[in-house]
Amino acid sequence: MAQDEERTLEQLNEEADIAADYLEGLLDIADYEGDIELGIRNGRPMIQIVADDDVDIKHLIGRNGEVVDALQQLTRLAVQQETGERSHLIVDVDGYLKRKRQQLRDMALDAVDEVQETGEPVDLKPMNSFERKVIHDVVRDEGLKSRSHGEEPHRYVTVYLKQSQNNDVDDELVDEAIEDVVEEFED
Predict the structure, then answer these.
(1) Same domain, 106 and 175
(2) Can you tell me the distance from the alpha carbon of 171 to that of 88, in angstroms, rounded to the nearest whole number?
Protein backbone atom coordinates (compact mmCIF):
# COMPACT_ATOMS: atom_id res chain seq x y z
CA MET A 1 0.00 0.00 0.00
CA ALA A 2 1.36 3.42 -0.88
CA GLN A 3 2.14 5.62 2.09
CA ASP A 4 -0.27 8.35 1.04
CA GLU A 5 -3.25 5.99 0.70
CA GLU A 6 -5.77 6.19 3.49
CA ARG A 7 -6.33 2.96 5.35
CA THR A 8 -9.89 1.81 5.79
CA LEU A 9 -11.53 1.61 9.18
CA GLU A 10 -11.46 -2.16 8.84
CA GLN A 11 -7.67 -2.12 8.25
CA LEU A 12 -7.10 0.22 11.20
CA ASN A 13 -9.23 -1.99 13.46
CA GLU A 14 -7.30 -5.06 12.27
CA GLU A 15 -4.01 -3.35 13.19
CA ALA A 16 -5.42 -2.42 16.61
CA ASP A 17 -6.57 -6.01 17.23
CA ILE A 18 -3.17 -7.45 16.23
CA ALA A 19 -1.43 -4.89 18.46
CA ALA A 20 -3.72 -5.62 21.40
CA ASP A 21 -3.10 -9.37 21.11
CA TYR A 22 0.66 -8.78 20.93
CA LEU A 23 0.67 -6.44 23.94
CA GLU A 24 -1.52 -8.79 25.98
CA GLY A 25 1.04 -11.52 25.34
CA LEU A 26 3.90 -9.25 26.43
CA LEU A 27 2.04 -8.19 29.58
CA ASP A 28 1.34 -11.85 30.43
CA ILE A 29 5.01 -12.78 29.95
CA ALA A 30 6.12 -9.86 32.13
CA ASP A 31 3.37 -10.67 34.67
CA TYR A 32 1.94 -7.15 34.52
CA GLU A 33 -1.70 -6.51 35.21
CA GLY A 34 -3.29 -4.13 32.77
CA ASP A 35 -6.31 -3.53 30.60
CA ILE A 36 -5.94 -2.69 26.94
CA GLU A 37 -8.26 -0.19 25.32
CA LEU A 38 -8.45 0.19 21.54
CA GLY A 39 -9.45 3.13 19.40
CA ILE A 40 -8.75 5.11 16.25
CA ARG A 41 -7.36 8.64 16.50
CA ASN A 42 -6.43 10.87 13.56
CA GLY A 43 -6.47 7.90 11.20
CA ARG A 44 -4.17 5.82 13.40
CA PRO A 45 -4.87 2.83 15.61
CA MET A 46 -4.49 3.82 19.28
CA ILE A 47 -3.77 1.26 21.98
CA GLN A 48 -3.91 2.38 25.60
CA ILE A 49 -2.59 0.23 28.44
CA VAL A 50 -4.33 1.09 31.71
CA ALA A 51 -3.67 -0.42 35.15
CA ASP A 52 -4.72 0.21 38.73
CA ASP A 53 -1.21 -0.44 40.05
CA ASP A 54 0.85 2.76 39.82
CA VAL A 55 4.11 0.88 40.39
CA ASP A 56 3.65 -1.51 37.45
CA ILE A 57 2.40 1.20 35.15
CA LYS A 58 5.42 3.42 35.86
CA HIS A 59 7.68 0.56 34.77
CA LEU A 60 5.76 0.35 31.50
CA ILE A 61 6.35 4.05 30.87
CA GLY A 62 10.01 4.11 31.86
CA ARG A 63 12.34 7.05 32.24
CA ASN A 64 11.31 9.79 29.79
CA GLY A 65 8.93 7.35 28.09
CA GLU A 66 11.70 5.03 26.91
CA VAL A 67 9.77 1.84 27.70
CA VAL A 68 6.51 3.00 26.10
CA ASP A 69 8.52 4.05 23.01
CA ALA A 70 10.09 0.59 22.85
CA LEU A 71 6.69 -1.07 23.31
CA GLN A 72 5.34 1.01 20.43
CA GLN A 73 8.22 0.06 18.12
CA LEU A 74 7.95 -3.63 18.96
CA THR A 75 4.18 -3.55 18.49
CA ARG A 76 4.51 -1.78 15.14
CA LEU A 77 6.93 -4.51 14.02
CA ALA A 78 4.52 -7.23 15.15
CA VAL A 79 1.68 -5.61 13.19
CA GLN A 80 3.90 -5.20 10.13
CA GLN A 81 4.92 -8.85 10.31
CA GLU A 82 1.26 -9.88 10.42
CA THR A 83 -0.13 -7.49 7.78
CA GLY A 84 2.89 -6.90 5.55
CA GLU A 85 2.28 -3.14 5.87
CA ARG A 86 4.11 -0.52 7.93
CA SER A 87 1.91 0.61 10.81
CA HIS A 88 1.66 4.06 12.37
CA LEU A 89 -0.17 2.84 15.44
CA ILE A 90 0.25 4.64 18.73
CA VAL A 91 0.82 2.85 22.02
CA ASP A 92 0.15 4.82 25.18
CA VAL A 93 0.47 3.81 28.81
CA ASP A 94 -1.81 5.40 31.39
CA GLY A 95 -2.20 8.69 29.48
CA TYR A 96 1.55 9.33 29.28
CA LEU A 97 1.37 10.69 25.72
CA LYS A 98 -1.38 13.17 26.58
CA ARG A 99 0.71 14.52 29.46
CA LYS A 100 3.82 14.56 27.25
CA ARG A 101 1.99 16.46 24.48
CA GLN A 102 0.94 19.12 26.98
CA GLN A 103 4.52 19.49 28.27
CA LEU A 104 5.79 19.80 24.70
CA ARG A 105 3.07 22.32 23.84
CA ASP A 106 4.11 24.42 26.85
CA MET A 107 7.78 24.16 25.82
CA ALA A 108 6.95 25.22 22.26
CA LEU A 109 4.86 28.17 23.45
CA ASP A 110 7.70 29.29 25.74
CA ALA A 111 10.09 29.16 22.78
CA VAL A 112 7.60 31.09 20.62
CA ASP A 113 7.32 33.78 23.30
CA GLU A 114 11.11 34.06 23.58
CA VAL A 115 11.54 34.32 19.80
CA GLN A 116 8.83 36.98 19.58
CA GLU A 117 10.41 38.97 22.42
CA THR A 118 14.02 38.78 21.23
CA GLY A 119 13.67 38.21 17.51
CA GLU A 120 16.44 35.60 17.84
CA PRO A 121 16.10 31.89 17.01
CA VAL A 122 15.74 29.47 19.93
CA ASP A 123 17.23 25.95 19.91
CA LEU A 124 15.40 23.33 21.93
CA LYS A 125 16.90 20.21 23.49
CA PRO A 126 17.28 17.03 21.41
CA MET A 127 14.00 15.17 20.94
CA ASN A 128 12.60 12.10 19.23
CA SER A 129 10.46 12.40 16.09
CA PHE A 130 7.14 12.38 18.00
CA GLU A 131 8.30 15.25 20.20
CA ARG A 132 9.65 17.26 17.28
CA LYS A 133 6.39 16.81 15.36
CA VAL A 134 4.38 18.20 18.28
CA ILE A 135 6.74 21.19 18.51
CA HIS A 136 6.57 21.86 14.75
CA ASP A 137 2.75 21.75 14.80
CA VAL A 138 2.46 24.20 17.72
CA VAL A 139 5.03 26.60 16.24
CA ARG A 140 3.26 26.57 12.87
CA ASP A 141 -0.10 27.19 14.58
CA GLU A 142 1.46 30.20 16.32
CA GLY A 143 2.63 31.68 13.00
CA LEU A 144 6.36 31.09 13.40
CA LYS A 145 8.72 28.67 11.68
CA SER A 146 10.74 25.74 12.95
CA ARG A 147 13.26 23.35 11.54
CA SER A 148 14.91 20.16 12.76
CA HIS A 149 18.70 19.91 12.80
CA GLY A 150 21.30 17.34 13.72
CA GLU A 151 21.56 13.58 13.59
CA GLU A 152 19.62 11.04 15.64
CA PRO A 153 19.59 10.74 18.60
CA HIS A 154 20.67 14.37 18.93
CA ARG A 155 18.14 15.94 16.52
CA TYR A 156 16.68 19.16 17.86
CA VAL A 157 14.29 21.90 16.76
CA THR A 158 15.09 25.56 16.15
CA VAL A 159 12.20 28.03 16.40
CA TYR A 160 12.47 31.34 14.55
CA LEU A 161 10.47 34.23 13.13
CA LYS A 162 9.08 34.05 9.63
CA GLN A 163 10.84 36.52 7.42
CA SER A 164 8.14 36.73 4.78
CA GLN A 165 9.47 39.99 3.41
CA ASN A 166 12.61 38.10 2.36
CA ASN A 167 11.00 34.83 1.30
CA ASP A 168 8.35 34.04 -1.23
CA VAL A 169 5.19 32.40 0.08
CA ASP A 170 5.92 29.44 -2.20
CA ASP A 171 9.26 28.91 -0.42
CA GLU A 172 7.46 28.83 2.93
CA LEU A 173 5.00 26.24 1.68
CA VAL A 174 7.80 24.12 0.28
CA ASP A 175 9.73 24.33 3.58
CA GLU A 176 6.66 23.28 5.58
CA ALA A 177 5.85 20.43 3.19
CA ILE A 178 9.42 19.12 3.32
CA GLU A 179 9.45 19.30 7.12
CA ASP A 180 6.12 17.42 7.33
CA VAL A 181 7.36 14.65 5.02
CA VAL A 182 10.65 14.30 6.91
CA GLU A 183 8.87 14.13 10.26
CA GLU A 184 6.37 11.53 8.95
CA PHE A 185 9.20 9.29 7.69
CA GLU A 186 10.99 9.60 11.04
CA ASP A 187 7.84 8.56 12.87
Answers:
(1) yes
(2) 29
